[in-house]
Amino acid sequence: MQDLFRRYGKGLTYTILGLTFFWLFVLVILPDFKLLESSFRPYLPVVDIGGPLDVYSLENYGDILGNEVPFSVFGIDMMIGARVKVFVLTIYYSAIVTAITFVLAYPLSYYLAKVVSSKSLPTLFLLLFVPLWVSEVLRSFAWFIILTLKGPLNAFLMALGVIEKEIRWIDGYSPVVVTLVYAYVLFMLFPLYNAMQSLDSNQVEAAEDLGSPWWRTHWRVILPHAKPGIASGAVMVFMLSAGSLLVPAIINSPTGNWFTQTIQDIMLGGQDWNSGAAFAFMLLLFCTVTVTLAMRVFRVKLSDIAK
Amino acid sequence: MSAGIELDNVCCDFGKFRAVDRVNVTIQPGEFFSFLGPSGCGKTTILRMISGFTEPTEGVVRIGGKDMRGQRPNQRPTALIFQNLALFPLMPIWENIAFGLEVRGVDKAARRKRAEELLALVDLHDSADKMVSQLSGGQKQRVAIARALAVEPAVMLLDEPLSALDLKLRQHMRAELRAIQKRTGVTFIYITHDQGEALAMSDRVGVMSQGRLQQVANPRDIYNNPINGFVASFVGENNILTGDVQSASGGYASFSTAIGTLKARLPDTSVGKTVKIYVRPEHIALTEAAAAENSVPVTLSEVAFEGNFITVHGMTEGGTRMIAEVRNDGAASVPTAGTQMHMSFSAANASLLPDSATTGA
């Protein structure tokens, strides 16, 4: 802090601090706090707001349970709320998206960090970045087109003779998963690349010199070193996927609802901001719990991720 | 179990740059062999070719008589100790040491036992469960040695492993390394730019410059009978005097130089040629009166008291700088700069050498 004053002077330092405070407190914390507060209040006609009916309760949170539908997990059939089902599947498929992005990004980031010559690195990074220049809406529509019944993927597979009849790709959660993987794979790639780049190549060579086959070198030396990168990539991809609205809105199938769509329906369709807020906070809470648990399981500290 | 190594006309090119140029040397099983040279002379490339990380562009590397072409580092009977040691920071010490055994499918109890034996061998008891970051530089060094020994290599390759240590520790580790080598009987190939290390530890030293092996000999011969000017000036200090051969007979010749006529050893006669004469500073005597042979009057320009010896810089009338090292026997007075004195050397200690070898060794 003293350093800031010395370098930029009082006026500028206070301006910067003030703006940061404004952004963080007024634009981020206050609205969220307001939303949190209203999530505990009932959805009432305007005249009743502030009246005797306007009391705090957990009713909005309980709303998620109603409207039971069959659901089976590990072969056990049960009845759960339709919204709970969407909620659980959203978390589940976000985890799947995270796992797939990891499987795709791990070899690629190793290749970029340790194998490829530094001369061709900028070109390769450019190739990775170019798709980001296209907006997420267009990219999602592109996948929609690719996966439609009479789309290029089916045409291609039929031309090759791999399939005889068109496959209905846009069904269940697969189109959302595919598009989310495509949209967020770079959020896994870059932290992984950073982590791997900081690995001393001599350690890889030392392992090989001691007789280690490539897979063991990865398992014992490279993967443990890259763990913080994997963790921060996984947190980003998981959070972004679970919170994504655009991708499922564009490419969802009737059987593949995302929980963010449920929230949107309640908030914009039903105009019930109170319940919508309650659902949104449940999603946030559950994602945070999932991430914390995963970090415990894989023994990653928050400070590792911050690196 | 140890194996000899043969480098048979080995070359290595990086693009247009020839890092290693036609190196031929045979290293005996159980030998402590050092490659000595300035940085960029190709010595590390030689090490990487033996360990298998770099393939020779031409020529063959044989270990234990077996052609190593196409053999990956994990298939060769070598263990490399990296300059930065490359210990695995996320594993405890014993897992570091036992990694090579883990790879070979040795069960955990046996691995642990072997790791502790090796820790005892390198004098590091009770460190098995520590992490790498908890050890000092010298201790890390020992762990690296133990890790390499664990795989029972036939050849141990060391890439300037002592360069990161401080002077006292470095000298201690020299003796230690030598002792470990004697105890295990493994062939050691040691890479260094530190001539003291190379001379003190090795059975034989190969001096390298610009990708070429200049001379291979035991440390005494490297120092006392350098084959050319590069070896003479890279290993130890030397006074270099340029002169024309006047006459030669019986292995000695007279030269006319800027500082007078001098006598030196001459391997082959070549009267009239301009040559360079090399004299070690410790072979130069400093006297007040002129000596009988090869005596040059000088003005002392700089006197550095270094403890066990005194380095004296002298300037001749013609402006040639000469350096003498005088042993500090505790009795003689230290000369002062500005004094007029005589520097002399015996003809037997002055040798005439060709410049660096592009002719090869």
Count of β-strands of chain A: 2
Oligomer: heterodimer
User: How many strands, which pairing sense, and closed or not: the largest β-sheet of chain A?
Assistant: 2 strands, antiparallel
Query: How much helicity do the residues of chain B have?
Result: 10-25%
Rg of chain B (C-alpha, Å): 24 Å
What's the SSE pattern of chain A? HHEEHHHHHHHHHHH
Distance between the termini of chain A: 22 Å
Number of helices of chain B: 8
The N- and C-terminal alpha carbons of chain B lie at a distance of 30 Å
Class from helix and strand fractions of chain A: mainly alpha
What best-fitting shape of chain B do the alpha-carbon axes yield? elongated
Number of DSSP strand runs of chain B = 20
Regions with little confidence, pLDDT below 50 for 5+ residues of chain A: none
Strand order of the largest sheet of chain A: 1-2
Biggest sheet, spatial arrangement of strands of chain B: 6-7-8-3-9-10
| CA-based shape of chain A | globular
The helix content of chain A is: over 70%
The portion of residues forming beta strands of chain B comes to 35-45%
Number of helices of chain A: 13
**Strand fraction band of chain A?**
under 5%
**pLDDT averaged residue by residue of chain A:** 88
